[in-house]
Amino acid sequence: MDKPREKCGVFGIYTKDRDVAKDIFFGLTALQHRGQESAGMALCDTTGEKGNISFYKGMGLVSEVFKGDKLSTLHGNIGVGHVRYSTTGASSIENAQPVVFNYSKGTLATVHNGNIANAPALKEELLNDGTVFRSDTDTEVLALLIAKERAHTPTIQDAVKNVSGKLKGSFAIIIMSPRKLVAMRDPLGLKPLCIGKRGEDFVIASESCALSAVDAEFVRDVEPGEIITISKDGIASDKTLVGGKHAHCIFEYIYFARLDSVIDGKSVYDARFKAGEELADDYPVDADIVTGVPDSGLAAAEGYSSRSGIPFGLVFHKNSYMGRTFIKPDKNERSVAVHLKLNVIESAVKGKRIVIIDDSIVRGTTMANLIKLLKEKGAKEVHVRISSPPFLYPCFYGTDVPDNSQLIAGGNGVEEIRKRIGADSLCYAKVEKFDRMVDNLPVCKACFDGNYPTEKF
Prior knowledge:
Blueprint: E1 8-14, H1 21-30, E2 38-44, E3 53-59, H2 62-65, E4 78-84, E5 99-103, E6 106-116, H3 119-128, H4 138-150, H5 156-164, E7 169-176, E8 181-185, E9 194-198, E10 201-205, H6 208-213, E11 217-221, E12 227-231, E13 234-238, E14 248-249, H7 251-256, E15 262-263, E16 266-267, H8 268-282, E17 289-292, H9 298-308, E18 316-318, H10 334-341, E19 342-344, H11 346-349, E20 353-358, H12 365-376, E21 381-386, H13 414-421, E22 425-428, H14 434-437, E23 443-444, H15 446-449
Parallel strand pairs: 14-23, 17-20, 20-21, 21-22
Antiparallel strand pairs: 1-4, 1-10, 2-3, 2-4, 5-6, 6-7, 7-8, 8-12, 9-10, 9-11, 12-13, 15-16, 18-19
Helix pairs in contact: 3-4, 4-5, 8-9, 10-12
């Protein structure tokens, strides 16, 4: 896939006495777009005396991991779940989450979205203390730090607070002890995390779409730096670490988040629609139809159409039943792979001048193949508009952007890229227009402009 990837999606739920395995399944399914490599969940029954945590994780989509009667073997009224795309650590069952382990005061289960940039240094400290690691992820480093801190602090939330000061990077974390859920968001607010309520039940999730999946009402976003604790006594907030600079990841609005989510008070759909309007203002063109690359380019295409007056239309049929690509195509089979994922509706494009909107161009291979398909089906002209600027800089916060040598914009100007992908014209969004896209929400744009919200790692 010629796209930047997000690392993970997290989900947690606390109920009084209801079995939550199915709730976690539905929540993770709603977050499947955030990671398709592995899935897992851990549950605990707080109504019992033992406080044992049961868990299961596996490679593949949520529906593949928890097929058959697997859910019926997992019981508990509180739980956490995770879907993963790896940016640190290999794609393997050892690195799948939740991270579950026993320690001196009990058992913890941890799920994490983000990238702990100073994890290697923190891991070295733990190794020097004789800690044994079972995986090569920053999540295990984080979990073991919390367990170590918990050994000499009165509560799990105190341990989480103390550890947070040592972390550099991005994180949205949910920790389950046998009696509590504790959630924490990085002080910059790079990774999303929100709170929902269903009757007396509380839900924590990466995106609001996962709350809807379990019929929970959105309450609010977790504030950057805030620590949330959910227990039998209800929900509590610690805002000791709240304050200072915020830098929400702009790519949540451009591509990562699901279209129906609301993150930090901003509708993802509205942000993408506005991005399309800005493209139409800045880069008009004479054309017969505007379309978007499914799915993240469609809302921006609607915005472009609305502002330009050029009719919006669907020209691609997306195959929704492919799931993961188990056999990676070689260079001679890539066009076949594109046909399997997206196919052109010939009657919609023949003889027409087309504006095609997408959220980004990374290597350029997918866009080149799409333009080739459109012209083979009779498109007269293909004009490309991209709702993000060119990728020029690496991300240290959990977005998997290739190094500069693999980025088509790394050594090529816009005109050279246009020639390489075969477009009749090519224009990128202006980085200074992002403020309008998200109504002046403070965002991180470092992958486009090199201005990192904190020091480089």
